[in-house]
Design brief:
Structural class: alpha+beta
Distance between the termini: 36 Å
Radius of gyration: 19 Å
Mean pLDDT: 90
Number of strands: 15
Helix content: 10-25%
Number of helices: 5
Largest sheet: 6 strands, antiparallel
């Protein structure tokens, strides 16, 4: 992460602040808290640090206290609310409209083989379309490859709430170097678990027992709530493992 600048809603970003792509064909990726107005105006819609990732040619406003706003390409954890003829209608957060999940938006799904999801079921999905004028659309596969790539129904396990900032850090490719997070790496040395992280501030964990699942969830939430640094995360990991 190259830089952070504190911004307020309505701030117009100057060109010298934005990352310059290594390839001219690479488009700038706008994340939460930013609005694009043609031909070239980018305005902030949230207050918080402006985060710039020059490697990924991405920019966004970090805002832990704000509600999640669906953005295209975000991975999220959603709850199935109800179904209609062609769609599952899913809750992403209590504050957003239901996202539409086409019933065939799964790897290899046909009318005969599509998953039969029940109300209250959990899914790990990617936002494929998001607009303030339309309900978001999500999918449990990559449309360009046809593969699930880890997306789909989440069975068993438990869901824990975390801040939006913590979710972003957990989704970084280099958690330790870029996100200053080691808690999962430390716990994984002695506890086997599966994890799915949603950009909407949800994390799904499934371990060999309820006790171990709760341990991992508590570790993440404590790290988040108390803003623990790397050394403090290591101490927390050791403490929780001793108590287990």
């Amino acid at each position: 992460m190259a830089a952070q600048i504190l911004v307020m809603p309505g701030h117009v970003l100057s060109e010298d602040v934005l990352p310059v792509p290594r390839k001219s064909s690479t488009s700038l990726k706008l994340g939460p808290g930013l609005r694009y107005t043609p031909p070239s105006t980018i305005t902030t819609t949230l207050a918080g640090p402006l985060c710039i990732d020059r490697k990924k040619n991405a920019v966004w406003v970090e805002n832990n206290s704000g509600r999640y706003i669906p953005q295209t390409n975000d991975v999220i954890i959603a709850t199935v609310h109800h179904s209609s003829t062609d769609f599952y209608h899913c809750s992403i957060t209590p504050h957003t409209t239901f996202a539409q999940l086409p019933q065939l938006a799964f790897e290899g799904a046909t009318k005969k083989t599509r998953p039969q999801l029940s109300s209250g079921g959990l899914i790990y999905a990617r936002v494929v379309a998001a607009s303030k004028h339309l309900d978001p659309e999500i999918a449990c596969y990559n449309p360009s490859t046809g593969k699930s790539e880890g997306l789909g129904e989440l069975k068993s396990g438990m869901v824990f709430d975390i801040s939006l900032g913590m979710a972003r850090r957990l989704l970084l490719s280099k958690q330790k170097e870029e996100g200053k997070l080691v808690i999962l790496e430390d716990l994984a040395e002695q506890v086997a678990f599966e994890i799915a992280i949603g950009r909407n501030g949800k994390v799904w964990i499934n371990a060999n027992s309820v006790k171990e699942t709760l341990l991992v969830g508590k570790a993440l939430q404590t790290t988040d709530d108390e803003a623990l640094n790397v050394d403090e995360q290591k101490k927390l990991s050791r403490k929780l493992l001793r108590q287990s």
